[in-house]
Amino acid sequence: MKSIIKKSLPVPVLEFVRNCLDASKRSLEVPNAYFHPWRKQTRQRIVKYKDIHKNQRCFILGNGPSLKNTDLSKLKNEVTFGMNRIYLAYSDMGFSSTYYVSVNDLVIEQCAEDIQNLKQPRFVSWRGGKKWLQPDDDLFFLYTTYTEPIFAKDIRNRIWESATVTYVALQIAFYMGFKEVILIGVDHNFETKGKANTTIVSQGDDPNHFHPEYFGKGFRWQLPDLEKSEIGYQMAKKTFEKAGRKILDATIGGKLTIFEKIEYNECFSQRPVY
Length: 274
What we know:
This protein has an eight-stranded parallel sheet. It has helices at residues 2-8, 11-27, 30-35, 37-45, 90-93, 105-110, 112-117, 126-132, 165-176, 226-242, 266-269; strands spanning 57-61, 80-83, 99-102, 122-125, 139-142, 144-145, 159-160, 180-184, 199-201, 220-222, 246-249, 260-261. With 274 residues, it is an alpha/beta fold. Helix 9 runs parallel beside helix 10.
């Protein structure tokens, strides 16, 4: 019966009903999301990052296979965002990313010890972080949700995930004031296929990321929702451009077509002065 009702309702009506139900569910989260001691502390401390990098540029490092073909040594003196298991590349890079972001529950659960021990400022979802992590210096618990698309200009409040941690990093970068954000390693293409958001267990080496052990054998992870990710990317593009800023895509061989493309090496041929 439920499936029949879904098929009979126009898409706008179905979306309205779904958003109402989601909003109702989220209302139960709100007290803790804003008033729990850990969240109150985050909301107070995170203000120091407001426009801290105003008019500067940064690089957001995706975790696609193309990262293996990208000379990351060029980023040593740049401001960078690393995500999820990017720390597997730190030894080859010779340095750590400036900032770290992770919002997926399964990643936080299975990598909690690694995340807890990282030394750079870390931004994690409140939802998963409260279960698997402990408060720490430069560890910030963000109120992220799966539903009701928004682009959060103020990351003290609710942030939409858009099915990709990259979108969360873009919202953080906006809050920090970056004028130009350059994406690398955002391949937007997965060899493993299946229904979006389905949780699977890896049976061997990971072909979808820069390191075979990224989601290696036995790791539980969710199949990507590329369509939902593109909704967020479109919102990010619009928000940045409206503010006189821009997002560029320097991913080598990437399949994402939303942002203006730029050759990776061109990012360093004439360093912009801000």
